[in-house]
Amino acid sequence: MNPLELASRYVVPPLMRRLVEVLVEEHGLSRVEAARKTGLSPAAVTRYLKGERGRLLEVRGLEEVESRVKDLAGKVASGGVSVPELQAEVASLAIYAMAKGYFCGFHAKLDPRFGPESCSACRNLLRPQR
Prior knowledge:
By secondary structure, the chain is mainly α. The chain has helices spanning 3-26, 31-38, 42-50, 63-77, 83-99, 104-110, 121-125.
C-alpha cells in the first residue's frame, strides 16, 4: 500500500475523529454545528463520535499531533478556517505524522514490505514540513 493510500484510508479518518471529538467535547459544538464547520455530514460526525469511523489508529497519545489537532479545532470552532483550508490542514498533519514515522508499525501490518526497519518511504516522500 503506497503512503498516500495509507494516509487517505487510515490516517486522515482518526485525525478527523479526534478533531470532531475536540470540537464537540471541549468547544461545546453540537453535532450539527461540528458537521457544518468541518464539511462532514451529521451522520459522519456521529459515526466519528461513536468510534464507528476512524478507530483503527489512535492519535491521542501523539503529543505533537494532539497539540496540532487542538489548535486546529480552536480555529474551526471560532470560524477562522474554511472547509477547504481545514482539509488542507488535516492532510498536512497526516503527512507530518507519517513522515515522523508514527504509523510505520501499522503500515507494516498492512503490507510487510513497508516494515519500519527496512522502509523509509514515508520519511523520504513526506518529509516533515515544520
